[in-house]
Specification:
There is one protein chain. By secondary structure, the chain is α+β, with helices and mostly antiparallel strands. Helix content is 48%, strand content 12%. It is built from 14 helices and 11 strands. The strands form 3 sheets. The chain has a 5-stranded mixed β-sheet with strand order 7-8-5-10-9. A 4-stranded antiparallel β-sheet has the order 3-2-11-6, covered by helices on one side. It has a two-stranded antiparallel sheet with strand order 1-4. Helix 5 crosses helix 8. The longest helix has 28 residues.
Length: 389
């Protein structure tokens, strides 16, 4: 039994791309590779790749050790260790390792044992798509509110740290999926349930329906980091120079490591640590308001580090990190520590762009870091950045 069988993985959400449609519900694509412009109404056909999030080789101990060693991680507390173990079991589709229920009802126990046994799959795993769905659902509510209010209206001083909050939320989400499956299986197959077994089912229902109090500020930050790492370009290491990718392949073979699996651990585990560090270092979320006639563009790799275009092929230095993420043709978010601009309102954490040259600057960053396609609201904008053959 697989919890998820989705093969076609959209690495840029369709609800996000809708913000870049024209009045006729068209979106315009600029192809960097072929220097061509396309138009489509079918958002399902863009920004996706079949099996991008499918784990074809189980995450191994070698992958985990390489992940920890390379990032110099010390999983030295029980919460961090439990979260990493839970995450690996879920991504590997080995869910029975997380799940154990005992009951005095023999028939009920047989059903539970059978269902739990089915939660270990030796084949490929597509469970990762469910985590991205969780992140997108949490981001969607915040995203729509920002578009409507044209303001980031979220508390800035949450009580707990982001790692604890997000690790608990994701862990609860995983266990609620398991509880839902177990509860439905038992409830459907058993006609008569003893009182003590009914209490077990009630516990499953509570676990299935348990919610972590949402923290929109952390959820928004987290999704921006997720979007930064989740694209085909980043997962496939296509943003690295060819020589670097060759060295990576050599390291893979020498150490028995699957680099995609390591990247998946970075996406779902290390982003929590990164967010902790960004919050501690006083990074801000700055809303950029485009008040010009020129629209922001987006791409198949829409969350970018502005320093990457400056660095070129050299390695980024300490402190060379920001994330720019266009939200719509007229709004964008910048994650930055030392942002300077004459129109920057520090109290509101907003900046207004009144010059098309400034909009052009941000659009060129998106063009530079796009894997292949830029997306925008008109053919004329595409032609400004990609010269048709």
């Amino acid at each position: 039994m697989h919890l998820c069988n989705t093969k076609d993985n959209h690495f840029v959400p369709q609800f996000y791309l809708k913000s870049f449609l024209d009045i006729s519900n068209n979106i315009y694509l600029g192809d960097k590779k072929n220097n061509k412009c396309y138009r489509t109404k079918d958002l399902k056909s863009i920004a996706f790749k079949t099996n991008l999030y499918t784990i074809t080789e189980k995450i191994s101990n070698n992958d985990i050790e390489w992940f920890r060693k390379t990032l110099k991680l010390s999983v030295d507390n029980s919460m961090a260790q439990t979260y990493l173990s839970t995450l690996v079991c879920f991504l590997n589709d080995e869910l029975a390792n997380l799940f154990s229920i005992k009951t005095s009802n023999k028939e009920c126990q047989e059903i539970l044992d059978r269902e739990i046994k089915s939660l270990i799959n030796e084949e490929i795993s597509r469970n990762q798509e469910l985590l991205f769905s969780l992140y997108e659902n949490d981001f969607y509510k915040i995203y729509i509110d920002i578009l409507e209010q044209k303001h980031i209206n979220l508390p800035l001083q949450p009580a707990e740290g982001p790692f604890l909050y997000l690790a608990l939320k994701i862990t609860q989400f995983i266990y609620s999926l398991l509880a839902k499956k177990a509860h439905l299986s038992v409830a459907e197959e058993l006609k008569e349930i003893k009182q003590d077994d009914q209490e077990i089912l009630e516990d499953l229902i509570k676990l299935k329906e348990m919610k972590i109090e949402p923290n929109g500020y952390y959820d928004l930050w987290h999704y921006i980091l997720i979007q930064y790492f989740r694209t085909e370009k980043i997962i496939g290491f296509w943003g690295l120079p060819e020589e670097t990718r060759k060295r990576l392949n050599t390291i893979e073979k020498a150490n028995g490591v699957n680099s995609e699996n390591v990247m998946f651990l970075i996406i779902h585990y290390q982003t929590l640590n990164i967010l902790d560090k960004l919050i501690q270092d006083d990074f801000k979320l700055i809303l950029i308001k485009n008040e010009t006639e020129m629209n922001f563009i987006t791409s198949d790799n829409p969350a970018v580090n502005p320093y990457s275009s400056i660095a070129g092929k050299r390695a980024l230095q300490d402190g060379e990190f920001e994330i720019y993420f266009p939200l719509s043709p007229k709004l964008a978010i910048l994650c930055s520590k030392n942002f300077l601009h004459k129109n920057y309102d520090k109290d509101l954490s907003e900046v207004k762009l009144t010059s098309m040259d400034e909009v052009d600057y941000w659009n060129k960053l998106i063009l530079h870091d796009a894997n292949r396609y830029i997306y925008t609201t008109s053919e004329n904008i595409v032609k400004k950045y990609i010269t048709p053959i």
